[in-house]
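Recap slide: Glutathione S-transferase family protein, sequence and predicted structure.
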Amino acid sequence: MTDAPDLTLWHAPLSRSMRILWLLEEIGCPYRLELIDLTDGSTRRPPYDVIHPVGRAPALRDGDTTIHESGAMTEWLCETRAPHLWRAPGEAGRLGWLDWLHFGETLCQHVANLTQQHVFLREPSQRSPVLIRLETARLSRALGLVERTVTESEWLLSEFSGVDCQVGYSVWIAGRFVDLAQRPALAAYRDRCAARPAFQRSLPGPEMRAIYDRDF
């Protein structure tokens, strides 16, 4: 009998927790996957409300410790299990790695705001056309920093790293809200991310309920 994995990831298919699932697949370490549904209220009830008091995804347990923020998960996993995907203090590229790690949350927040409007507010009367226009414009503008970078480089740093999972997921999802057809460098970066075998393994199977079923 093999020991149970130290790592457990609570994941809602296609949500921001996909960033961590993708990273775990890139690392290739054993982990246990627990699927959750963000649409039925179950994340605000036991047992998940004990695991993540805010009721959001993801949550990552490493041994006896639970982590609730994706950026912290990315840094911890890279530091402890995949130093080739990390940039250690004092190492070249460290500041850029940290900058992209946290910028990934800027992108993801715009995506989350649009997801709330288009997906979680089921009644059209609840949605705000003004907010949708503003958030779409903000997301498009934020993507510009990624676009400028990947025009000159295949990845965000000199080679693929953990921050490409953090940012690349948001670029991939952003294509549901922002037309990337006229932004070839950004679209090519999205496609490079999506072509990675680890990314493909992080996609939901047909039996999984995903939060997105179309573009907007």
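DSSP finds eight helices and four strands in the chain.
The CA atoms of residues 43 and 55 lie 5 Å apart.
(End of recap.)
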